[in-house]
Design brief:
The protein has helices at 7-29, 40-51, 55-79, 90-109, 113-129, 144-158, 165-192, 198-221, and strands at residues 132-133, 136-137. With 229 residues, it is mainly α. The chain has a single domain (7-216), classed as Up-down Bundle (Growth Hormone, Chain: A), CATH 1.20.1250. The chain has a two-stranded antiparallel ribbon. Helix 1 packs antiparallel against helix 5, helix 1 (7-29) runs parallel beside helix 7 (165-192) and helix 6 packs antiparallel against helix 7 (165-192). Keywords: Membrane, Transmembrane, Transmembrane helix. The chain crosses the membrane at residues 12-35, 55-78, 90-108, 136-158, 170-189, 195-214. This is DUF1275 domain-containing protein. Pfam families: DUF1275.
């Protein structure tokens, strides 16, 4: 069970889910009408393309999935741990996410699939940044696991078994962030087109800077060994 969730974890999880919700809905509303932030549907589409021997579609979906995995690989290289912990290089990872989203905008405006690959790489990087916190799996680019956890909690409640209230709140937090991001992304895409992605790109950069400042403040506030009591 989750024993403690710092405020920065709550805030960061909601913001990242909100960003992912925007990115995914832009992909769904865009010229190829395909999801970007999660791979289940794209893997099924890859299977369909393979079965139908559609080489172009096969290469496209393989590249889309590969871009997401590449982003996760970059995250693993930078952060080097799956456990969420203040002090790791999340700021650098978030800055890369921001740059990839910025780069995707002109590509998508020219209806280039490379824009989708850049956005998928950004989402893979973001999703892999946080794997677990106090035993709770935290995913911010898709909500299947969160809805699964909600179902498990409901089943436990019906059997009058103990329910981890903090983990339940975390599920609602991520789901609400992703949903709100999708709503905001729909309005933004209908108004600005692919330039809507400039908003999550800028927001991610702001979160990166905020995390860096927060981390710096914590380091400066930490007492130095050997100081007088």
């Amino acid at each position: 069970m989750i024993s403690k969730l710092p405020r920065w974890v709550w805030t960061g999880a909601w913001m990242l889910a909100f960003i992912a919700g925007i990115v995914n809905v832009v992909g769904l509303l865009g010229f190829q009408h395909q999801a970007i932030t999660h791979l289940t549907g794209n893997t099924s589409l890859l299977a369909e393309a393979l079965a139908e021997r559609d080489l172009a579609a096969t290469l496209h979906f393989a590249a889309l999935i590969g871009a997401f995995v590449a982003g996760a690989t970059i995250s693993g290289f930078l952060i080097q741990d799956s456990a969420l912990q203040l002090g790791r290089r999340y700021g650098v990872a978030l800055l890369l996410v921001s740059l990839l989203l910025f780069a995707s905008v002109p590509l998508l405006q020219h209806q280039s699939a490379y824009g989708m690959y850049a956005a998928a790489c950004a989402c893979g990087l973001q999703n892999a940044m946080v794997s677990t916190y106090s035993g709770a799996v935290v995913r911010t680019t898709h909500v299947s696991g969160m809805f699964t956890d909600l179902g498990i909690f409901l089943g436990h409640a019906l059997r009058r078994l103990p329910v981890d209230s903090r983990r339940l709140k975390l599920c609602f937090l991520v789901i609400s962030g992703f949903l709100c991001g999708g709503i905001a992304g729909t309005f933004a895409f209908n108004t600005f087109g692919y330039s809507a992605l400039l908003f999550p790109a800028s927001l991610t950069a702001a979160v990166s800077i905020a995390y860096g400042l927060f981390r710096l403040r914590r380091v400066r506030a930490k007492p130095v060994h050997g100081d007088a009591a």
